[in-house]
Automatic annotation (TrEMBL):
Boundaries of every RING-type domain copy: 125-339, 129-177
Pathway: Protein modification; protein ubiquitination
This protein's name: RBR-type E3 ubiquitin transferase
The enzyme's E.C. designation: 2.3.2.31
Transmembrane segments: 565-587
Region (Disordered): 1-30
Organism this protein belongs to: Salvia splendens
UniProt GO MF annotations: ubiquitin protein ligase activity; zinc ion binding
The entry's keywords: Membrane, Metal-binding, Repeat, Transferase, Transmembrane, Transmembrane helix, Ubl conjugation pathway, Zinc, Zinc-finger
Taxonomic lineage from the root: Eukaryota, Viridiplantae, Streptophyta, Embryophyta, Tracheophyta
Enzyme class: transferase
Length: 596
């Protein structure tokens, strides 16, 4: 019975069925730190990126450039469109196809009216501002794209109020019923003249809107904050790891908690954090004093109890009584019978408390095991070093680290499966979704899979904790096969448990929608730093600038490859007022540097 759930076999094919060090994407939680002995590389491009303070502007410019090219508009108008559609470029394109250019502009508040300048011959004339109703010189008024013109003082006051109110990302024109968004360049110019600090705040709001208003980009919830944000490319229902090592659920920005849904984890966290279970214990084990209403715990067998305030009362019904009593009666009191409502409430509270304790104890046990096993990392490294120092026929020991990382992942999934079961088969969320018979069948199905996974995880933990570095070579080979087989089986059982949750349990709900982050054999994906094509590395810019300085006003074309620099050609060029370093790349990394 000990080997019911893991595979057998001694061939090299069996060994190869488990991913090697180089095939893994990432490691979970604590096991990710300083893991130089196992660099796991994904076979596909990562679907999430780390946006640092340095790359935030580049990431924003990338989306702005796409919209500017699509509509042939200025950056200000492109930003207005993207903020309105929460930086979803695909949605901008979809609405554009559906409503056309003028329709999407009207919805977002973009106005492309021709600029009507004041007559230069009348530069000394005055213009009436319809906000303050003063006549001001024409040079002291500003005209927006929507053709509304007001004095600079009124515009500046309007902008300052909006910035202080936190509405700087979409500042509308002051004219009545005008939905046009004000030009950010004008806002910056007018505000900086009086309040440079507010102008900086305005620019920071515009920059951070890429994260604050973007459903596909969220701040890393690390404490203290690392300053990074994570951008996902496909589904926002996923778990990611920041470059700082923080793993979290991208959907709810709490710790990674699959196979729990976000709502389940939120309720479970609150239940474990607050004093709700203390209240349950008080309800089960105490009765309120009928005089002072303080909870009183019974510490003897007699049903006549006394509160510290001096009031005596009956433990059976809670009614106030006298102090004199006999074996069969209490003075001034006749209990009669139990109050059924009170009895049922107490029994229900007691049952709920015991049920919560059952799931919480197992959740806590696996969480504690995960923390203890995470300390095995250094021990495992020492064991591998000791094995490598021995003269053994076996020279490859990646199975040890692979087994350790599989243990971490499966232990984590196993611990979060208990909060899931607490809510899935309880009355808090899905009371009306299934009958008692259906609940019993589904609970038995899930618990069978949970127990199989738990049994094999404990076996794997036992093998990895053994001092196998001191064993004879034949015994080391046996442990190796056990670990490899258990890793394969545990991965398969995790997949089956997640499939059961997604399809048989959550997938069958009719009135509620609960989704979980998908299971990945290689663990939570580690986000890579965002590299925007048109924005080169600092070192590349330095090289381009140095070579461009030598060109003395010519266009110089360079090809970067393998960190070497080849000169391709030089041709005369003049007449442009641009200084561009490192523009774009397609397929091969081709950079153009212009120096005027």
């Amino acid at each position: 019975m000990e080997d019911d759930y893991y595979l057998s076999g001694n061939s090299d094919d069996d060994v190869g069925s488990y991913p090697s060090d180089k095939e893994e994407e990432s490691l979970d939680g604590l096991e990710n730190n300083d893991c130089d002995d196992a660099q796991w590389i994904s076979s596909k491009a990562p679907s999430c990126k780390v946006i640092t303070r340095e790359s935030l502007l580049a990431a924003q410019k990338e989306d702005l450039g796409r919209v500017m090219d699509l509509f042939s508009v200025r950056e200000h108008h492109a930003r207005t469109l993207l903020i309105h559609f929460r930086w979803d470029v695909e949605k901008v394109i979809a609405v554009y196809v559906e409503k056309g250019k003028f329709g999407i502009f009207a919805e977002a508040g973009v106005t492309l009216a021709e600029f009507v300048d004041l007559d230069p011959d009348e530069a000394t004339s005055t213009v009436r501002c319809h906000i303050c109703m003063d006549d001001v010189p024409a040079k002291d008024v500003t005209l927006m794209d929507c053709s509304h013109c007001f004095c600079n003082d009124c515009w500046t006051g309007h902008f300052i109020v909006k910035i202080n109110e936190g509405q700087s990302k979409r500042m509308r024109c002051m004219a009545h019923k005008c939905n046009a968004i004000c030009d950010e360049a004008i806002v910056r110019r007018l505000v900086s003249a009086q309040h440079p600090d507010l102008a900086e705040k305005f620019d920071r709001y515009l920059l951070e809107s890429y994260i604050e208003d973007n459903r596909m980009v969220k701040w890393c919830p690390s404490t203290p904050h690392c300053g990074n944000a994570i951008r996902v490319e496909n589904d926002e229902l996923c778990e990611v790891e920041c470059s700082c090592g923080m793993q979290f659920c991208f959907s709810c920005v709490s710790e990674a908690h699959s196979p729990c849904s976000c709502l389940m984890w939120k309720l479970w966290s609150k239940k474990c954090r607050d004093e709700s279970e203390t209240v349950n214990w008080i309800t089960v084990h105490t009765k309120p004093c009928p005089k002072c209403h303080k909870p009183v715990e019974k510490n003897g067998g007699c049903n006549l109890v006394s509160c510290v305030c001096g009031q005596a009362f009956c433990w059976l019904c809670g009614g106030a009584t006298g102090r004199d009593h006999t074996w069969s009666s209490i003075a001034n009191h006749s209990c009669g019978r139990y109050k059924e409502d009170g009895k049922r409430k107490a029994e229900r509270a007691k049952r709920d408390l015991y049920r919560y304790m059952h799931y919480h104890n197992r959740y806590k046990a696996h969480t504690d095991s995960f923390k203890q096993e995470s300390r095995m990392r250094e021990t495992v490294k020492e064991k591998v070093s000791h094995l490598e120092a021995r003269d053994l026929k076996l020279r490859e020991f990646s199975w040890v680290t692979n087994g350790l990382y599989r243990l971490f992942r499966s232990r984590r999934s196993l611990s979060y499966s208990y909060p899931f079961a607490f809510y899935m088969f309880g009355d808090d969320l899905f009371k009306d979704e299934m009958t008692e018979k259906q609940r019993e069948i589904k609970q038995n199905l899930f618990e069978d899979q949970q127990q199989q996974l738990e049994s094999n995880v404990e076996k794997l933990s036992k093998f990895l904790e053994e001092p196998f570095a001191e064993y004879p070579e034949e015994q080391v080979m046996q442990i190796r096969m056990h670990v490899i087989n258990l890793c394969v089986v545990i991965d398969s059982l995790c997949k089956k448990m997640y499939d059961c949750i997604e399809n048989e349990l959550l997938g069958s709900l009719e009135f509620s929608i609960h989704s979980i982050a998908p299971y990945h054999s290689n663990g939570i994906e580690k986000a890579e730093e965002l590299i925007v094509g048109w924005n080169t590395q600092a070192s590349g810019n330095s090289k381009c600038q140095k070579e461009a300085d030598r060109s003395n006003g010519k266009v110089v074309l360079f090809l970067f490859s393998c960190e070497e620099l080849w000169w391709v050609g030089v041709m005369p060029f003049s007449g442009l007022g641009y200084n561009i370093c490192g523009i774009g790349y397609m397929f091969q990394k081709l950079y153009i540097c212009l120096k005027i």
